[in-house]
Amino acid sequence: xxxxPLPLAGGPERRGLRRGVFLLPxxxxxxxxxxxxxxxxxxMRGQFHTAAPFIGVAIVLDMLDGRIARMTGSSSAFGVExxxxxxxxxxxxxxxxxxxxxGLAPLGRLGxxxxxxxxxxxxxxxxxxxxxxxxxxxxFVGLPxxxxxxxxAATIFFASAPITDRGPAFLALAILLVPALLMVSTxxxxxxxxFDLSAPRSYKVLVPVAAWVALMTAYTxxxxxxxxxxxxVSPLIEWALTRRRPAAPLPDPPSxxxx
Length: 259
Hints:
Blueprint: H1 12-44, H2 48-72, H3 77-104, H4 109-131, E1 139-141, H5 145-159, H6 166-172, H7 174-183, E2 188-190, H8 206-218, H9 220-232, H10 234-244
Antiparallel strand pairs: 1-2
Protein backbone atom coordinates (compact mmCIF):
# COMPACT_ATOMS: atom_id res chain seq x y z
CA UNK A 1 0.00 0.00 0.00
CA UNK A 2 1.59 3.26 -1.10
CA UNK A 3 1.54 6.39 1.04
CA UNK A 4 -0.55 9.31 -0.13
CA PRO A 5 1.48 12.18 -1.56
CA LEU A 6 1.89 15.24 0.63
CA PRO A 7 0.15 18.43 -0.57
CA LEU A 8 2.36 20.83 -2.40
CA ALA A 9 3.37 24.13 -0.79
CA GLY A 10 1.02 25.97 -3.09
CA GLY A 11 -1.84 23.48 -2.79
CA PRO A 12 -5.41 24.07 -1.60
CA GLU A 13 -4.51 23.49 2.06
CA ARG A 14 -1.79 26.10 1.93
CA ARG A 15 -4.00 28.61 0.15
CA GLY A 16 -6.82 27.99 2.64
CA LEU A 17 -4.47 28.61 5.56
CA ARG A 18 -3.27 31.82 3.95
CA ARG A 19 -6.84 33.02 3.44
CA GLY A 20 -7.56 32.26 7.10
CA VAL A 21 -4.59 34.37 8.18
CA PHE A 22 -5.81 37.30 6.07
CA LEU A 23 -9.33 36.88 7.49
CA LEU A 24 -8.22 36.91 11.15
CA PRO A 25 -7.77 40.71 11.58
CA UNK A 26 -11.12 41.33 9.88
CA UNK A 27 -12.79 39.01 12.39
CA UNK A 28 -11.51 41.21 15.21
CA UNK A 29 -12.78 44.26 13.31
CA UNK A 30 -16.16 42.57 12.90
CA UNK A 31 -16.26 41.94 16.66
CA UNK A 32 -15.41 45.61 17.19
CA UNK A 33 -18.36 46.54 14.96
CA UNK A 34 -20.65 44.22 16.90
CA UNK A 35 -19.66 45.91 20.18
CA UNK A 36 -20.66 49.28 18.77
CA UNK A 37 -24.03 47.91 17.70
CA UNK A 38 -24.59 46.19 21.06
CA UNK A 39 -23.82 49.46 22.87
CA UNK A 40 -26.49 51.26 20.85
CA UNK A 41 -29.07 48.51 21.48
CA UNK A 42 -28.52 48.44 25.26
CA UNK A 43 -28.47 52.26 25.41
CA MET A 44 -31.87 52.36 23.70
CA ARG A 45 -33.13 49.99 26.38
CA GLY A 46 -31.80 52.27 29.13
CA GLN A 47 -29.30 49.65 30.34
CA PHE A 48 -26.36 52.06 30.52
CA HIS A 49 -24.16 50.05 32.88
CA THR A 50 -24.31 47.21 30.35
CA ALA A 51 -23.98 49.40 27.25
CA ALA A 52 -20.90 51.43 28.24
CA PRO A 53 -18.44 48.50 28.65
CA PHE A 54 -19.03 47.46 25.03
CA ILE A 55 -17.11 50.57 23.97
CA GLY A 56 -14.21 49.49 26.19
CA VAL A 57 -14.20 46.03 24.62
CA ALA A 58 -14.29 47.66 21.17
CA ILE A 59 -11.19 49.71 22.09
CA VAL A 60 -9.30 46.53 22.99
CA LEU A 61 -10.40 44.80 19.78
CA ASP A 62 -9.36 47.86 17.74
CA MET A 63 -5.88 47.65 19.24
CA LEU A 64 -5.64 43.94 18.52
CA ASP A 65 -6.76 43.86 14.88
CA GLY A 66 -3.98 46.20 13.76
CA ARG A 67 -1.32 44.36 15.73
CA ILE A 68 -2.44 40.99 14.41
CA ALA A 69 -2.43 42.30 10.84
CA ARG A 70 1.15 43.55 11.26
CA MET A 71 2.34 40.37 13.00
CA THR A 72 0.89 38.08 10.34
CA GLY A 73 1.74 40.33 7.40
CA SER A 74 -1.92 40.36 6.40
CA SER A 75 -2.48 44.12 6.15
CA SER A 76 -4.64 45.12 3.20
CA ALA A 77 -6.49 48.10 1.78
CA PHE A 78 -9.77 46.32 2.53
CA GLY A 79 -8.76 45.87 6.16
CA VAL A 80 -7.92 49.57 6.52
CA GLU A 81 -11.28 50.67 5.12
CA UNK A 82 -13.23 48.07 7.09
CA UNK A 83 -11.49 49.14 10.29
CA UNK A 84 -12.39 52.81 9.72
CA UNK A 85 -16.05 51.98 9.08
CA UNK A 86 -16.22 49.85 12.22
CA UNK A 87 -14.52 52.60 14.25
CA UNK A 88 -17.07 55.15 13.07
CA UNK A 89 -19.83 52.97 14.53
CA UNK A 90 -18.07 51.95 17.75
CA UNK A 91 -16.31 55.24 18.51
CA UNK A 92 -18.62 57.69 16.75
CA UNK A 93 -22.23 56.53 16.62
CA UNK A 94 -22.23 54.40 19.79
CA UNK A 95 -20.84 57.06 22.19
CA UNK A 96 -23.16 59.70 20.72
CA UNK A 97 -26.24 57.49 21.06
CA UNK A 98 -25.21 56.30 24.53
CA UNK A 99 -24.66 59.84 25.84
CA UNK A 100 -27.87 61.13 24.29
CA UNK A 101 -29.95 58.40 25.90
CA UNK A 102 -28.14 58.83 29.23
CA GLY A 103 -27.99 62.58 29.69
CA LEU A 104 -28.80 64.67 26.62
CA ALA A 105 -32.41 63.64 25.97
CA PRO A 106 -33.80 66.32 28.35
CA LEU A 107 -32.24 68.98 26.10
CA GLY A 108 -34.31 67.86 23.11
CA ARG A 109 -33.01 69.13 19.77
CA LEU A 110 -29.92 70.66 21.36
CA GLY A 111 -29.02 67.24 22.76
CA UNK A 112 -29.23 65.37 19.48
CA UNK A 113 -27.44 68.25 17.71
CA UNK A 114 -24.48 67.89 20.09
CA UNK A 115 -24.52 64.15 19.52
CA UNK A 116 -24.31 64.76 15.78
CA UNK A 117 -21.40 67.18 16.28
CA UNK A 118 -19.50 64.42 18.08
CA UNK A 119 -20.34 61.91 15.34
CA UNK A 120 -19.18 64.34 12.63
CA UNK A 121 -15.94 65.05 14.52
CA UNK A 122 -15.23 61.32 14.79
CA UNK A 123 -15.81 60.90 11.04
CA UNK A 124 -13.48 63.81 10.24
CA UNK A 125 -10.86 62.45 12.64
CA UNK A 126 -10.91 59.00 11.04
CA UNK A 127 -10.81 60.38 7.49
CA UNK A 128 -7.90 62.66 8.36
CA UNK A 129 -6.02 59.79 9.98
CA UNK A 130 -6.40 57.65 6.84
CA UNK A 131 -4.82 60.24 4.53
CA UNK A 132 -2.36 61.79 6.95
CA UNK A 133 1.35 61.10 6.83
CA UNK A 134 2.79 61.59 10.30
CA UNK A 135 6.52 62.15 10.52
CA UNK A 136 6.76 61.26 14.21
CA UNK A 137 5.12 57.87 14.87
CA UNK A 138 5.28 58.49 18.61
CA UNK A 139 2.36 60.92 18.44
CA PHE A 140 -1.16 61.19 17.10
CA VAL A 141 -2.38 64.51 15.69
CA GLY A 142 -5.58 65.13 17.61
CA LEU A 143 -7.26 62.91 20.18
CA PRO A 144 -7.68 59.37 18.78
CA UNK A 145 -11.31 58.37 18.32
CA UNK A 146 -11.09 55.32 20.65
CA UNK A 147 -9.76 57.53 23.45
CA UNK A 148 -12.44 60.12 22.75
CA UNK A 149 -15.11 57.42 22.99
CA UNK A 150 -13.61 56.30 26.29
CA UNK A 151 -14.56 59.61 27.94
CA UNK A 152 -18.37 59.24 27.75
CA ALA A 153 -18.14 55.46 28.15
CA ALA A 154 -16.09 55.62 31.36
CA THR A 155 -18.17 58.49 32.75
CA ILE A 156 -21.48 56.74 32.13
CA PHE A 157 -20.16 53.41 33.39
CA PHE A 158 -19.15 55.19 36.61
CA ALA A 159 -22.36 57.21 37.03
CA SER A 160 -24.91 54.77 35.51
CA ALA A 161 -27.98 56.64 36.77
CA PRO A 162 -29.46 58.63 33.87
CA ILE A 163 -29.89 62.40 33.91
CA THR A 164 -33.55 63.37 33.81
CA ASP A 165 -33.44 67.11 34.61
CA ARG A 166 -32.62 69.82 32.09
CA GLY A 167 -30.13 71.64 34.34
CA PRO A 168 -27.68 68.76 34.95
CA ALA A 169 -28.05 67.75 31.31
CA PHE A 170 -26.03 70.81 30.30
CA LEU A 171 -23.08 69.32 32.22
CA ALA A 172 -23.37 66.19 30.05
CA LEU A 173 -22.67 68.31 26.98
CA ALA A 174 -19.02 68.58 27.99
CA ILE A 175 -18.32 64.86 27.84
CA LEU A 176 -19.12 64.96 24.11
CA LEU A 177 -18.10 68.47 23.06
CA VAL A 178 -14.63 68.46 24.63
CA PRO A 179 -13.53 65.15 23.04
CA ALA A 180 -15.13 66.25 19.74
CA LEU A 181 -13.06 69.43 19.63
CA LEU A 182 -9.89 67.62 20.62
CA MET A 183 -10.37 64.98 17.91
CA VAL A 184 -10.26 67.61 15.15
CA SER A 185 -7.54 69.67 16.82
CA THR A 186 -3.82 69.55 16.04
CA UNK A 187 -2.82 68.81 19.64
CA UNK A 188 -0.35 65.93 19.76
CA UNK A 189 -1.20 62.86 21.84
CA UNK A 190 1.44 60.29 22.61
CA UNK A 191 0.86 56.92 20.97
CA UNK A 192 0.97 53.93 23.28
CA UNK A 193 1.69 51.64 20.31
CA UNK A 194 5.38 52.60 20.38
CA PHE A 195 5.96 50.90 23.73
CA ASP A 196 8.45 48.09 23.13
CA LEU A 197 8.28 45.12 25.49
CA SER A 198 11.47 43.72 23.97
CA ALA A 199 13.50 46.73 25.06
CA PRO A 200 16.16 46.23 27.77
CA ARG A 201 14.78 46.27 31.32
CA SER A 202 11.20 46.42 30.07
CA TYR A 203 10.45 43.86 32.79
CA LYS A 204 10.23 46.81 35.20
CA VAL A 205 6.74 47.48 33.87
CA LEU A 206 5.45 44.22 35.36
CA VAL A 207 5.00 45.64 38.87
CA PRO A 208 2.95 48.67 37.69
CA VAL A 209 0.87 46.35 35.50
CA ALA A 210 0.23 44.07 38.48
CA ALA A 211 -0.83 47.09 40.54
CA TRP A 212 -3.12 48.21 37.72
CA VAL A 213 -4.76 44.76 37.53
CA ALA A 214 -5.33 44.77 41.31
CA LEU A 215 -6.88 48.24 41.23
CA MET A 216 -9.03 47.35 38.21
CA THR A 217 -10.37 44.35 40.09
CA ALA A 218 -11.20 46.33 43.22
CA TYR A 219 -12.21 49.70 41.74
CA THR A 220 -13.11 49.08 38.10
CA UNK A 221 -15.26 52.15 37.45
CA UNK A 222 -12.93 54.57 39.23
CA UNK A 223 -9.80 53.29 37.49
CA UNK A 224 -11.41 53.49 34.03
CA UNK A 225 -12.52 57.08 34.65
CA UNK A 226 -9.03 58.01 35.87
CA UNK A 227 -7.41 56.42 32.82
CA UNK A 228 -9.77 58.10 30.34
CA UNK A 229 -9.40 61.59 31.76
CA UNK A 230 -5.66 61.28 32.39
CA UNK A 231 -5.07 60.55 28.71
CA UNK A 232 -7.43 63.38 27.79
CA VAL A 233 -5.20 65.91 29.61
CA SER A 234 -1.91 64.08 28.95
CA PRO A 235 -0.59 66.73 26.49
CA LEU A 236 -0.98 69.35 29.23
CA ILE A 237 0.80 67.07 31.73
CA GLU A 238 3.61 66.40 29.25
CA TRP A 239 3.95 70.12 28.52
CA ALA A 240 4.14 70.92 32.25
CA LEU A 241 6.80 68.27 32.86
CA THR A 242 8.83 69.50 29.90
CA ARG A 243 8.67 73.08 31.15
CA ARG A 244 9.99 72.07 34.56
CA ARG A 245 12.87 70.12 33.07
CA PRO A 246 16.08 72.20 33.07
CA ALA A 247 17.33 73.19 29.65
CA ALA A 248 20.56 71.67 28.40
CA PRO A 249 23.51 74.08 28.90
CA LEU A 250 24.84 75.75 25.77
CA PRO A 251 28.44 74.96 24.78
CA ASP A 252 31.06 77.55 25.74
CA PRO A 253 32.09 79.82 22.88
CA PRO A 254 35.60 79.21 21.56
CA SER A 255 38.26 81.31 23.24
CA UNK A 256 40.38 83.84 21.34
CA UNK A 257 43.47 81.70 21.81
CA UNK A 258 41.79 78.77 20.09
CA UNK A 259 40.82 80.79 17.03
